[in-house]
Specification:
Length: 175
């Protein structure tokens, strides 16, 4: 029996997909399975670093993608945006204020996430204890997001309309 050119490809595809399909039906492995050995399970190392270093982590995306530039990115593009000395000082101050707030809030968030993790790790989680911790976390998350969004609001006020337009072009937001 002669094989056409397509038959070997079909055989190869079957050989590659059958073991995968079988593995999919052997239980329901969690996407978290690689994280079970971590002592701290509530946040990834990247999340912790982001919080402790005051990074934006997408918290101001609503502002960024709707024409409200971020101070850090404006400072990075100061030459292209032709910032005046006064603008640079004001935007640097805006960034510094936001960064200080973000780091302080980030530290508090990591502390609360650690407490939440410990409640479950010690088998001491109760609905009331979890609710109290989550209320605190929610408040802190809101304050952190506000710090980032407020910096975008202030930055837009410092820039001219042309600079905002140029910023959006530099960031690839305009078509």
């Amino acid at each position: 029996m002669k094989m056409t050119r397509i038959q070997p490809i079909v055989v190869l595809i079957l050989l590659l997909t059958v073991p995968f399909a079988q593995a999919q039906h052997q239980g329901h492995p969690s996407t978290y399975q690689t994280e079970t050995d971590q002592s701290f399970k509530a946040l990834s190392a990247q999340d912790i670093s982001g919080y402790l270093n005051g990074r934006g982590m997408g918290l101001a995306k609503a502002a960024e993608l709707n024409g409200y530039p971020g101070p850090m990115h404006v400072l990075e593009a100061e030459k292209e945006l032709r910032l005046t000395a006064d603008q640079k000082v004001k935007i640097q101050r805006t960034y510094d204020t936001m960064h200080r707030q973000a780091v302080a809030l980030g530290q508090q968030i990591v502390t609360r996430e650690t407490a939440l993790n410990q409640l479950f790790a010690s088998q001491q989680a109760t609905p009331q204890a979890v609710q109290t911790t989550l209320d605190s976390l929610g408040r802190l998350q809101g304050q952190l997001r506000l710090a980032h969004l407020a910096a975008h609001l202030k930055t837009k006020q410092i820039l001219s309309g042309e600079q905002v337009q140029q910023y959006n072009q530099l960031r690839g937001y305009t078509k």
